[in-house]
Amino acid sequence: MTAITLLTAPSCRLCDDAKVVLDRVAIDFDLTLELVSLDTPRGQELMTKHQVVFPPGVLVDGEPFSYGRLSERRLRRELENRKSLRARRRCQSDMMMQQAKNLHQANRYFKQGEEK
What we know:
The protein is an alpha+beta fold. It contains three helices and four strands.
């Protein structure tokens, strides 16, 4: 699951547009969405920390992604890349687990041969 944080401001048309984009993207991706107003201390902290110049600011898994008009195409591409990366890591992890299992079985086999 990917965490999206949307930094918003009151009366911000681009923020409203970003919410619509995120609603559409959430149909195709497993997302959690957090809206944080820039009027709050947390919003100010995130804006400063991630150098968001103006709203809306978008963070993906806590990392700065964009500010201003949110590009749906760019966001989808980023989410697809992250999804592919997770799948590759999962596959590598599965392969490593299988190799460890094979090594363990080989060690047991050789130990049985030494006992005879």
